[in-house]
Design a protein that fits this description.
about 90 residues; 4-stranded antiparallel sheet
Length: about 90
């Protein structure tokens, strides 16, 4: 088993308030406000022989559990979008 290759990635998503819409085509005259979402991803790849590798990955989206509404989501009239999402995965690539 060889030496592992690790990485860390910070993510940011900025969504500005929607200003290009026709109120006559919408159910109500409401556009969600601007919001920022932050995420994090950390992982490591370990080579297993010549062609195989094992990957362990930990990722988180909406790290600060921000309440927000996405303009293109029809549920925005009555519900917020997804809160904090944390995932751990292990993959074997062969």
């Amino acid at each position: 088993m060889g030496k592992g290759n690790a990485w860390l990635q910070l993510k940011h998503r900025l969504v500005l308030k929607q200003t290009r819409f026709n109120p006559a085509n919408d159910l109500i005259d409401f556009t969600p406000p601007t919001y920022n979402l932050f995420g994090l991803e950390a992982g490591i790849d370990w080579p297993l022989g010549e062609r195989n590798k094992l990957r362990m990955l930990l990722s988180a989206d909406n790290l600060f559990n921000k309440e927000y509404k996405e303009y293109t989501n029809r549920s925005r009239y009555y519900a917020h979008d997804m809160g904090r999402d944390i995932r751990f995965s292990i993959g074997w690539f062969f």
